[in-house]
Target: 4-oxalocrotonate tautomerase-like domain-containing protein
Amino acid sequence: MPHLTVHLPENRLSGKEPELVTALTEAIVDVYGEWARDLVSIRLAGVPAGRFAQGGKAVDTNASVILGVRAGVFDRPDAAQITARLGAALTDATTRVLGEELRAGTMVELVASPPERTFVGGALAV
Model:
């Protein structure tokens, strides 16, 4: 199940939440396929001004996208292509909605979970 947690400047996010949720969901579906649509879980976290910094200076042009994926994705023969597509698609979705000036400061991190460490509703997700 793809789980996304996205931290972005509150001033850029406010009012664009529905559009960003749609764009991020479509990015995942474009890579994984239509079967993944209902499994995409997104949490948007607006960061107040002054709480994003780069090089010791406050900025409002950074975004952090953390995508929780099953560890098996990294064992596939096409892992390099899949992960590259995810990174590009999520960055493109973010910048399409919130502005191209965020591209250089958008970090996409893929965090792997082994199957025995993922639970939904208190039960092991298989």
In short: The helical segments are 10-13, 17-32, 79-98. The mean pLDDT is 93. The first strand starts at residue 3 and ends at 9. DSSP finds three helices and eight strands in the chain.
